[in-house]
Design goal:
CATH topology: lipopolysaccharide transport protein A fold
Helix content: under 10%
CATH architecture: Sandwich
Shape: elongated
Order of helices and strands: EEEEEEEEEEE
Number of strands: 11
Strand content: over 45%
Structural class: mainly beta
CATH class: Mainly Beta
Radius of gyration: 17 Å
Length: 152
């Protein structure tokens, strides 16, 4: 049976609804942590996050401060009018700074242009419209894009 939790949060001067569905839900009010497991789906505006497990940290005012997704973690997000798809071993989202961190086996694709970037870690800054990619010595950053044929 799916559990449903609706959390209201303020983002950039207006309230946006966050909806989370999962197979299982547990909360620790003392620690300010909520854990969702099994087919977790988080929806907030244009952003959409799916994973096997999502841990949400809350501040003393019960506002979410961090989302940590693991297990088949993937997200669709919008940044400066462009649509992106992201996936990695772990996805971390900070709603206060509007930043995603994609860790290990990180992948980011701009959907409209099909630009793809692979790396060990990717930082996506939605507020600034920027992203940074880190590789490893044995696994460098890879960037793939299409060139238009000028003869056409």
């Amino acid at each position: 049976m799916k559990y449903l939790l609706i959390v209201l949060t303020s983002v950039l001067l207006y309230a946006q609804q966050v909806q989370i569905t999962a197979d299982k839900f547990s909360a620790d009010e003392t620690k300010g942590i909520t854990i969702f497991t099994g087919s977790v789906h988080v929806e907030k505006g244009f952003d959409d996050l799916k994973a096997d497990k999502v841990v949400v940290n809350f501040d003393k005012n019960k506002q979410p401060t961090l989302y940590t997704a693991s297990g088949h973690a993937q997200a669709k997000l919008k940044m400066k009018g462009k649509r992106y798809f992201a996936k990695g071993d772990t996805l971390i989202y900070n709603p206060m700074t509007l930043k995603y961190i994609i860790k290990k086996n990180a992948f980011l694709q701009e959907l409209d242009t099909d630009k793809k970037v692979y790396g060990e870690n990717i930082l996506v800054d939605q507020a600034r419209g920027k992203y940074e990619v880190d590789g490893k010595a044995n696994k460098p950053v890879k960037f793939i894009f299409q060139l238009k044929d000028k003869k056409k």
